Prior knowledge:
Oligomer: homotetramer
Order of helices and strands of chain A: EHEHEHEHEHEHEHHEEEEEEEEEHHEHE
Amino acid sequence: MQSIGVGLIGTGYMGKCHALAWNGVKPVFGDGPRPRLVHLAEIDADLAARRAAEFGFERATANWRDVVADPEVEVVSITTPNALHAEMALAALAAGKHVWCEKPMAVTLADAERMAAAARAAGRVAALGYNYIQNPLIRHIGALLAAGTIGVVNHVRFEMDEDFMADPEAPFSWKSDAASGYGAPDDFGVHPLSLIAVLFGGVARVMAQLAKPYADRPLAGGGRRAVATFDSACVLMELRNGATGIMALNRAAWGRKGRLAFQIFGSGGTIAYDQERMNEFQLFTASGDPAEQGFRTVLTGPVHPPYERFIPAPGHGLGFNDLKLIECHELLNAVAGRPARIIDFAAGLGIERAVHAIVRSHREASWFDV
Amino acid sequence: MQSIGVGLIGTGYMGKCHALAWNGVKPVFGDGPRPRLVHLAEIDADLAARRAAEFGFERATANWRDVVADPEVEVVSITTPNALHAEMALAALAAGKHVWCEKPMAVTLADAERMAAAARAAGRVAALGYNYIQNPLIRHIGALLAAGTIGVVNHVRFEMDEDFMADPEAPFSWKSDAASGYGAPDDFGVHPLSLIAVLFGGVARVMAQLAKPYADRPLAGGGRRAVATFDSACVLMELRNGATGIMALNRAAWGRKGRLAFQIFGSGGTIAYDQERMNEFQLFTASGDPAEQGFRTVLTGPVHPPYERFIPAPGHGLGFNDLKLIECHELLNAVAGRPARIIDFAAGLGIERAVHAIVRSHREASWFDV
Amino acid sequence: MQSIGVGLIGTGYMGKCHALAWNGVKPVFGDGPRPRLVHLAEIDADLAARRAAEFGFERATANWRDVVADPEVEVVSITTPNALHAEMALAALAAGKHVWCEKPMAVTLADAERMAAAARAAGRVAALGYNYIQNPLIRHIGALLAAGTIGVVNHVRFEMDEDFMADPEAPFSWKSDAASGYGAPDDFGVHPLSLIAVLFGGVARVMAQLAKPYADRPLAGGGRRAVATFDSACVLMELRNGATGIMALNRAAWGRKGRLAFQIFGSGGTIAYDQERMNEFQLFTASGDPAEQGFRTVLTGPVHPPYERFIPAPGHGLGFNDLKLIECHELLNAVAGRPARIIDFAAGLGIERAVHAIVRSHREASWFDV
Amino acid sequence: MQSIGVGLIGTGYMGKCHALAWNGVKPVFGDGPRPRLVHLAEIDADLAARRAAEFGFERATANWRDVVADPEVEVVSITTPNALHAEMALAALAAGKHVWCEKPMAVTLADAERMAAAARAAGRVAALGYNYIQNPLIRHIGALLAAGTIGVVNHVRFEMDEDFMADPEAPFSWKSDAASGYGAPDDFGVHPLSLIAVLFGGVARVMAQLAKPYADRPLAGGGRRAVATFDSACVLMELRNGATGIMALNRAAWGRKGRLAFQIFGSGGTIAYDQERMNEFQLFTASGDPAEQGFRTVLTGPVHPPYERFIPAPGHGLGFNDLKLIECHELLNAVAGRPARIIDFAAGLGIERAVHAIVRSHREASWFDV
């Protein structure tokens, strides 16, 4: 396969992120087909045309179904608001396309189940945009866990915090509307859950407490409207590997900008990571002279593939967009039938089930199996 | 009052810590009575004599009741194993002494209740050894919270981790025996609970998951014995001020040596602290130009009383023992009838109740009011 | 201008870095011409062809003069070993091309002077690859200095450390050969000097001490060869703005991977930065309540342009390659006659002069004006 | 020797620090004589009496010669302003007392030489107050260097920064008066020089640049007065062990409160330390799998003697005053004729010579042998 035809639906935050990945994946990795950027959809025709010119797409449309119907498109990037994922993914799969869909999968569990079933039936690659798992350091941490470097894992802590909902006087937005989902559990929780999925095989059961830091928010036209979503969540977990732990989420965490952090405790050591410093992780192993033991700050380098595809010198730093580019490369591996590190719709459904179990455990104030 | 007669029961870890405080409190603070180190008890007579010579006590005994009975002793430091606290504190109070008792208060809730009742009845000062609350930075954080510097607190996270139980092949010790208590909840949990008590007025309800990272441990004579205590604990909390949060405890956390850490999220900012770097805290306030906002690392200095009693220059660093010395000074304030920052037996009973609620919530797998 | 024809000479570390920038600059920034990747040169014809396929270039050659002579090439990226820069840049300028040449400019001061003269005469854009100055945080720090946020700067410290020369038993390589230049002063020193140039207008005089941590290195065929270059350097500086300071360089600094760090002290505050954590900087201002003063860790975000062209959410992190992409965009600004943040050959000559002054001050053991 | 008679001259910053050490040394270490606090001098008789009551001294005087003449005083702590050290130390030695004198030794080199000669002639212990060398971690770093853990040291960097002279509008004080000495070189430089002395055997030659960040300062009564001392200094160094390096000092470093920091680069690793986080150091060794190499943060613990004399649990933290207490214990070791880690007047003279060489190298703009 010399090239692969690409369609893109949505050109906002994640849409641009996909576009950058499609432009850069061949120059960075050298292998695989050259993406041919065929067709792009954006809700406004003018904007669609402008974005196509910027991103290097051949055709633009205001109707996303044109992209799905385009015979030259072989894979479709879906980067629209969450509520639209299901319809678009189902249509793309039905049209025989591979699908690269942003997370979370869907707003309802029923939709997610339909998507997983459709992907299975279609026999196409259907991958979700869980790019944090693509950090070379996360891969390496997975390898360390598999190798038993910190022994048997018995306790974990995951945190995810940003502050875009922290201002109590920020106007009511769709993020506070029930139609957007639950709030922190799906908007945020899916990220740590994706890491738990690849590092530990997923969550077995949960017990959660969801909260609304602010009961209502001002409306643009005056007055206030009750907030319907949960901006913070605290979760007790039992992982599939038997370890216990906590997950804490907060979209109203002043000062945190992209803090997806975790601590993993094992019988022989500890690993810690914080996405805000995504080019380093902390490793403690109970070995050597106690007088020189300590947490090591390991900087990413060419010894942590595929960092070396980006930069031959260590410690120079990857960025957030580079993770999406690695994800794109993994998607292409999957399309080519090679082993690939992706969270497909089947695995993604497991994450959605965990999200919904979290919400039910809160409502029923009791543990809930995933 | 020119001087105050001091008795000390126990000369181990905390016993020495009390002795250092009694020696240093007058030179550091300058005010209050000069402690007269009268009588010291240690289980072995020779050791008692040696410690008395080292610590500067006039008399030594192998019978702790001698200390309690000594008419020249006005205040008794109780630093023996937890199971002995109740009997000794009750005896000291009955003898009309002030009591400075190490944490946790007692192994059973019934004992703790008896101690609180006795203290109330005796009308003497009965203080517990929660020295982390004495850090000038913790005081300052309390002042910041009271002043609304980070707005209304809505979410908190507390962690307490050390690694003295982390080695799975360390021999079975009394720390794994049911007689020692529950494990992490009382051995560790009381520390974050003491901070929550002074910063937020305590915990309203809890839901916990306790765990045993290692099912059994080797016996010195061969074979293995089942571990009866919980080395780790995960707790969902609702505080008295309405904030939600988590508390995670782990005595088997490789690499952590004294990590009593917390994050406090409010409507206007965030505060973070880690006892392993006890001379600094992190403060984020949502103010000023967003392009220069960030977490500030504030170093302790003379502007954070009573640091200035120790060192006139900022950033030079207090140590763990200095916190106990401040606690000693607060105890003397209480004895003198002045306002004092102590956790007395009444407040300590609240902490014990929280510990027992944590254990019951785990056993019954449901939320439990404190 | 709808498009611009690009030639690339060299496809190694920096060659790929340029290629990635040329592929991504239009999708990221949206404005300016679309780069048309015309012609690529690599020393081996097969490798050249392979790289052209990977990077998306239309034509490949083993003769770099083909690129310079190609009428469809309008701008030439020069990313070959330092000793070749002068000849290639002079040829490209003579052919009427714009030039984007990697740092350092040249091995000899005479060559650098010829290059600067040629650029001036040609009236084309001639920019050097000093990408660290393109970090949005470095731009912001420049703005803070200009605004007087930390008052009048009086003292600075710059450090640059990596460890690729740290192993004393690593075989003798061209980096230890005199033909490669001086070692740390030019290989490393130019980076802090580029920051000093944009932040402070350059260095006025220097006094240096160069050193060879290892006198000789093993040869592949046995025996050892004397090291001719200086792997570390210590420099006293006086900046053009009157501030004093030090610069310390070490290519044999075990554990440092890309530590380009500085501290800037002013009459009203302090700024600190470390490239190994390139998405944050430290700011202290002597303002507000002393009890809450501290160094703030500011994370890059959309408020620090042009971060927002990459990611709309703060704290998600740019990478090293993103800096080169910003540099590419600035080059295109310059080509279009717009204000541009580049170090052109004239400014680059100032950096080279500082390097040579450093070496002379070492040889003569006395201060030397730049 | 059951006890030792102590005299104290000066009760300010360092005077209190000595008093705390004298009170605590026996309880902490258990061994050695019990200090008997005999006689204290302070310039004002009332204050002297008050301090004696606070610190536990038997007698107080406003005439320091009373302390020196007191037959019950065996060792004299001298903690007065620097200009008084020489006269007092000479008198105390002449009276046959051991001397514990705060740093720096004296304002003039001639005085320092007289003090060293007098100490040699008297055959008494004459120790200087270089307490930073007493940090258990500094001892451990010394042991690591001696063991070759980071190979052969070839490059070092020392920094010492505080901000008590940072405010340009703070009134002119004695610190800016020439009578107080040179400024940063002696006031600050002696601290890193003391570390260099114990870790590397001292400095061989220096080349410095001293600076006055602020030319003048306001006078209390109006007008301004020219600053005579140097608040910052940059120094090139060659150590006695052949390593090169820099030392940077700044008393006007906004935000730094007690930053005595260093980096030591060797052929096999790197060590870094910062006094503001005095309970940890950083260690990188070029060993093990490169994918897990990194700087280790080692927390002080009982494995780093004499930490275990203070606290049996690791990571709980010593404070600044504890270092002085260790120094006191070393002084007592020396008095008892045991091996002791002190900087005596002979070694201190070496430090003074380095200070004066720094100043001369600045004045003559050339390298100067120590």
